[in-house]
Amino acid sequence: IQPSAQNPVAGQRFRHLEWGLINFLHTTDNLTWGANSHGWHAGHLQEPQYSADFGDYLSLVSHLRNTAEEKGVDLIVLDTGDRAEGNGLWDATDPMGKYTRNFYRELPLDILTLGNHELYNGTTARNEFLEMVSFYEGRYLASNIDINVTGDWEPFATRIRKFVTEQQGFRITAFGFLFNFTRNDKNTRVKTAADTIKESWFQEGIRDTDVDLFVIIGHVDIYSIEFTQIFEAIREVHPDIPIQFFGGHSHIRNFRILDNKSTALESGKYFETVGWLSIDGIKAREAPDSADNTSMVVSRRYIDANRVGYQHHTGKNATTFDTPQGLLMTERLAKYRAGLDLDRLIGCAPQDFSLSKHIYPGPQNWYSYLEERILPTMVYSKERGQVPRFIFINTGSQRSDVFKGPFTYDTSFLVSPFTSKFVHAKDIDYSIAIHLRDFFEKDVGPYRSDKSENPLENRQQGAEEVDIQSSPLLVDHRQASLARHKHTKVIGYATTDDAGTDGDDTIHVPLKRYPTPQVIQGNASFPEDWESNPPATIDLVFFDFIAWHVAAGLNEITGTEDYSTKDFLPYMEQEDTMTRLLLDYVAKYWGRDC
Ligand SMILES: Nc1ccn([C@@H]2O[C@H](COP(=O)(O)O)[C@@H](O)[C@H]2O)c(=O)n1
Is the pTM of this model over 0.80? Predict the structure, then answer.
């Protein structure tokens, strides 16, 4: 736990983990290791429920590995990408991710893949390839991605890995997939899953009969069309071999039963969740006394990332839990954070603001505060600051709630990490501009986070539910009944998935989420009576990240092809990213008396 983090609440109760012959420990979308992997490597400092840091996680992995060895079963530790962007430890270094990648290399991952956040930026993609892929070698899987760093295209990482597990001798064939992502830097190439599964290496790979279990790790929503296509391709060849999927990207806890020998697990986001999945009764061909697949049992669990839970599952206490390597990692994280001055106080948030735990629009909603206060005050250009303007930003650019109290340099990256620039379209007819918001709401664009880039399409095609009655995969409900324990409940995830409602390791008071728009709009420099007497033309100011969609919207509204991203010019200075504007706003308006 980091020195500035709070302890998790006492009184939480946990059940024991169900171990199988093969077990998996899964993290995904950890951009934010404030408690987690999207870069919250230092743990969620202001959310005690998720306050474990990366050092604590190393200790957990080490203890669980020892337990696996003692039991003579296998433990596969894996990560399904989006380790890039989203907190100070990643974003405040030059090049970004310099320290984070080093820390990750200490995690003994058996298999890993990458997410879209490793590919938005060319330098990030290149450094991931040079520093992470080469380090993890064959364990880094990227079945549908290529990179060009030398002038020639080459596979980003290993396309397919066949390996035999140490304890039980399971013969595993593993693949790593990214969803059908299109906003990657030009030094990378992402092939669709549909095209990739037609390639000869894939078809040959799945035809090999020397396999007990297929493992597909993906930065892919588990209900996506991509996973369904991969599942069907393997099932065509092997009607009976178990297939285990691990997904990500949509930032949820979820579990899907594809058929009686195949399931998929998604383990949340931001190092709030460590996913556990075990398979028992699975047959290893080389081990004649092992069970056969007809009695296969799968168990899944979503573990909150905090030390209390970790200690429980390892049978350790506060003094025996830390391993030397874990402790050292915690110390080094604190040291590097200090070196980057991440805990520097910028100002004091006057209240809690949330992205979706409070109604939008409303006084506690962060998007409303941005629309009403921050955007109109901060998004200003010397040349055109007097011109009335609509300011649009996509809601996915905001990544974390803001908590009452200290707002640090690090918080600015947790909340708004991206380096998008503000651009503008000049002198647009007001009568056209007012239709843009409706366009954004109907558009399928990269506006949001917390779900697939193409959610409707993916969900509808992927969501043909299995008839679980006729596919009797045994999902393990042997775990102790939750109702027997007394709990001090905290607000958090209350997951319902294909196996029911007993997946959350800690019982939470369900977290409420309110709907939010895809794009928010701040209005600035309008005369007082502008709603009854609007100006003829205004400026539109927006992130370059959504420029293509603004042009598409203007073309659709006007029924022309007059608008193109080439017409959009910078509005502010290059360094005026949203992160920077937020820091300036907090320093100027929030005071420092927390
Ligand atoms: N430069 C960027 C990059 C991404 N976004 C937003 O993030 C979403 C994807 O994030 P996930 O964690 O869900 O993969 C994307 O759809 C955008 O909303 C951004 O704003 N700027």
Answer: yes
